[in-house]
Amino acid sequence: MQTELITQLNDFLWSYVLVVALIGCGLWFTVKTRFVQFRMVGEMVRLLTDAALPGGKNGKHISSFQAFAVSVATRVGTGNLAGVATAIAIGGPGAVFWMWVIALIGSATAFVESTLGQLYKQHHDESFIGGPAYYIRRGLHSKWMSVLFAVLITVTFGLSYNSIQSNTICGAMNEAFGWSPLWVGVVLTVLSLVIVFGGIHRIARVSSVLVPVMAIGYFVLALVVVVLNIEQVPHVLKLIVSNAFGFGQVAGGGLGATMMNGIKRGLFSNEAGEGSAPNVAATAAVTHPVKQGLIQSLGVFTDTLLVCSCTAFVILISGLYATPGLNGIALTQSALQSEVGSFGPVFVAVAIFLFAFSSIIGNYYYGEANIRFLTNNARVMTVYRLLSGGVMVMFGALSTLELVWNLGDLCMALLTACNLVAIVILGRYAFRLLDDYRRQRRAGIKEPVFHRSQLPEIDRELDCWV
Questions:
Q1: At a CB cut-off of 8 Å and minimum separation 6, what does 350 contact?
Q2: pLDDT digits (tens, 9 = 90+) for 314-336
Q3: Which among 142, 361, 416, 426 has most CB atoms closer than 10 A?
Q4: What is the reported pTM?
Q5: CA distance linking residue 136 with residue 147, whole number of Å
Q6: Which residues make Cβ contacts (< 8 Å) with residue 66, sequence separation at least 6?
C-alpha cells in the first residue's frame, strides 16, 4: 500500500510537474545563454587545464579540473549502470533518447546553477563552500526556502540515495556470487558507520584512485563490446528513435512511461538541475564564476552522452532488455555476460561496489555540509550519521528495487523543484556573467576576471570576488 502511494505520487510529480519544468527550464536557459552548451565546448575543454588560484590549504586551492573530477566521480556510478538498465526495462529503448535530450538541454541548466554556486560561494576553512542553500539565502533572501533545500538535499542524498546505493551493491553481489543481501547489507552497514564516524580520509584517498580507474575500465569494456558489434549500432539507433515516442514499444507501454523513465534516470545520473553539482562547483578557486559553469556543463555530457550511452548500447545489443523480471544492475550484468562471458557480471559487481560505496561517502558529505548550514549541534550530527551510514544502508539492502528507486525519485523531484525555482529567479545573473566572460574573451583576454563591483546591486551579498 505504501509503495503504491509513493508510486502514484511519483507519477503525478513526474508526469505533470518535473518533466515539463526540466524541459522548459532547460530550453529557456539554452536560449538565454545562446546555446552555451554547444557553442563553448572548446572553451570547456580548454578550462580543464586551468590552474587553481594560489592560497588555501598547503598554498593551493581546488582547481577547475579537480572540481570536474570530483563531480564526474559522484555522477559516474549507480545511475550509469543500474539506472540506465531500469529506464530501458521499464520505459523501453526509447527512454535512452529522452536521457540524451535531458542531457543536451540540461547541460544549460547545469551551467546556470554551477555559475550561481560560484558567484555566491563563501570562505570556509581556508577554502570555499557554497551551493543552492547559500544562493537561495543570499540571492533570494529566503531563509525558509534555504532551510527547506538544505533539509531536502540531506534527505535525498544522505538518506534516500544511500539506500539505492546499498540496494544496487547487494543486487550485484547476489547476481555475481550468490551472496545473501542480508549479510552483504550487514558488512556495508558496519563499513559505512566506521567511515562516517572517523575513518573517511584514508578510504576517501583510496577511493579517489580506485574509482576513476574502475570507471575508465568499465567505459573501455563497454566501448569494446560496442565496437565488436559495430554492425548492430545502426539497428540500435533506429530502435531507440522509433521507440522514443511510444511507437512499437516493447516494454513500458507508451510515450509517458518512456519519457518519464528516461528523464528520471537521466537526471539521477547527470544531476543537471538537481542542485548537487553547485556544492562541488563552489569549492573551486577560479578567476570567473562562468568557468565552473562551463566545467560542470561538460560533466553532464561526459556522464550521459558517453558512459550512459555505452551501458545502453550494451544492453540493447544483447537483446535482453525485454526479458521479464530482469531489471536494474542484474540486467546490466546479464547483458555483459552475454557479450564477454562470466567475467562481465564479476567485473560489474566489483565496479558497482566501488562506485556505489564511494557514492555513499559522497552522499553522506552532501548531507553533512547542509546540516552544518542548519546547525552546529553535535547530537543532530550523530543522529544523522547513524541514519545515513547505518539505518538507510541496511534498509536499502533489505528493500525491493522498486521501493528504493521510488523513494529516490520522490526525494529527487522535491529537491529539483526547489532548486529550479531558485535558478529561474537568479538566472539573470548567470546570463550577465556569461556576457561579461564572452566580452573579455573576444577582447583577447585569455583568463577573464570577475570583480563583485561588476554587479553593484548584489555587491553586499557576495562574500568573495573582492
A1: 214
A2: 899 988 887 877 777 788 888 88
A3: 416
A4: 0.84
A5: 9
A6: 52, 284
